[in-house]
Specification:
about 210 residues; alpha/beta; seven-stranded mixed beta sheet; 7 helices; about 20% strand; binds guanosine-5'-diphosphate
Amino acid sequence: MSEQYSEELLETGRLLCAAPVEFVMSVADMRQLPVADRPEICFAGRSNVGKSSLINALLNRKKLAKASAEPGRTRQLNYFDLAEGQLYLVDLPGYGYARASKTEIAQWTRLTLSYLQGRPTLKRIFLLIDSRRGVKETDEEVMDILDSAAVVYQVVLTKLDKLKKSEQDGLAEQVLTRLKKRPAFHPVVLATSSMEGLGLPELKAEIASLL
Ligand code: GDP
């Protein structure tokens, strides 16, 4: 997959993610958002999809994003500053937690929607999908929300190492075929493993391409 990205972009992405990163704040209410004065990307996905692991692996930090001991616990947007003010990385609360109540789901939707609609600097949402579980109904419901908010989302498959090599090949293509008609879907699907570092250079290059 790396042939899609030039050596130069891969290197820019590597440097961007190796630069200093700082936790800025947790936001539970839209009125607390930091001033939208720089490009912003965010990461979303079902609870337990491997979002914390991926953010930590991308930025090469052990405990930047809290590994979720209790899935669905975080109900806030977590803001990180990348490369000394170049970019905000936002960690959205996980969705689809099996024991989530209707109220919690409604809260997630309200917070996410108002965030998406009120953030002109948001360049892209990386929507994480567990390679072994595939695209679930909840994921499709979230994509419906994102399509209606018209914010471009890119699917990032996680935990690729859990699949056999024969299953790995072609999975991104299958997901692409299934979702490509969606209006706000970005037509490149990335496949990653935080554990083995697969696909991380490509994801970094993708982030760098948004600056
Ligand atoms: P989050 O709830 O989306 O933040 O998910 P976590 O990052 O906490 O990961 C959920 C579980 O998946 C943990 O047990 C991780 O160790 C595991 N996990 C995360 N990424 C990978 C990966 O790339 N490969 C494998 N095999 N397991 C992973």
